[in-house]
Amino acid sequence: MVNTMGRLADACWRAAAYCLHPRVIGLSLLPLLIAAGLTVGLAYFFWEAAVDGVRATLESWLLVESLLRWLASMGGEGFRSVIAPALVIAMAVPVVLVLSLVLVALLMTPSVVALVAERRFPQLERKRGASWWQGLAWSLLCSVGALLALFLSMPFWLIPPLVLVLPPLIWGWLSYRVFAFDVLAEHASAAERKRLMREHRLPLLGMGVITGYLGAAPSLIWAFSMLTVVFAPVLVVLTVWLYTLVFAFSTLWFAHYALAALAALRAAEPAVVPPVEQVPPPEATPPQLPPYQMP
């Protein structure tokens, strides 16, 4: 346990230091530009339609309409104009978060893992246990599962303690499954990757939960800026930038921990000495008689 905590702490401070590396800063720009561009573009074309659709749906529900009228009678007239944009943002933030995570996993993780391996583990053999399309399929499958679990758990968010536990736990599971797979795909074989993810499940899940709480922090921007919907494009870019930084740190943390665990696993295995090929002795040849000469 002490050794595991020491590895976690060592990988954590190394990840924080590597975040200041110029190559990591440069690599973080591409996922940021793609995610921010897609988010702003979709918001520009579909924001009004989404807000109008949500508002019409809410007004068609008698219970919600009665609640809004009661709030208006109590002096909360502005709540009617805020609830629809708030719900659209609440539904869009998980999608933006998953998009940022997948982009970081695809565009940053291979280069970040190569940087860590080059500087810390130059002798670590690359066994290439998974290809890039397997990593993409794994990321998409886990992302769909996390989004489904997130939407199914939304009714439980009304219970105050669970809203602080369920979303970070789901994001933590997603981060653990995606980053652990991706950082081991190049250097570990399929058997080594499965073994490490099984034997280090709790530490990796703990790292994922911590990064899940870090990933939930940018969402607080919307909680404090709900009435300033006019600044939504700027807030979207800021949120995506924070998500990218969090996931870049998470990638580095998982890379340092997983590659160190892989190196320790291989060092603990007994060296396999190839058998020496036995060379059979040359066959004895009969003595050669001198050629017969005629007298």
Briefly say what this structure is.
It is built from 13 helices and no strands.
How do the helices and strands line up, and which of them pair or pack?
Layout (H helix, E strand, L loop, with lengths): L1 H17 L3 H6 L1 H32 L1 H12 L5 H29 L1 H12 L11 H22 L6 H4 L2 H20 L4 H10 L1 H16 L3 H5 L7 H37 L27
Task: Give me some keywords for this one.
elongated; 75% helix; mainly alpha; 295 residues
Question: What string, H for helix and E for strand, traces the elements in order?
Answer: HHHHHHHHHHHHH
Weakly predicted, low-confidence segments: none
Tally of domains: 1
Strand content: under 5%
What share of residues is helical?
Answer: over 70%
State the total count of DSSP E strands.
0
Number of helical elements: 13
Instruction: Report the structural category.
Output: mainly alpha
Task: State mean pLDDT (0 to 100 scale).
Answer: 79
The radius of gyration over CA amounts to 29 Å
Approximate shape = elongated
Describe the structure.
The protein is mainly α and 295 residues long. The chain is built from 13 helices and no strands. It has helices spanning 2-18, 22-27, 29-60, 62-73, 79-107, 109-120, 132-153, 160-163, 166-185, 190-199, 201-216, 220-224, 232-268. Helix 5 (79-107) runs antiparallel to helix 7, helix 7 packs antiparallel against helix 9 and helix 9 crosses helix 13 (232-268). The longest helix has 37 residues, at 232-268. The protein starts with a helix and ends in a 27-residue tail after the last helix.
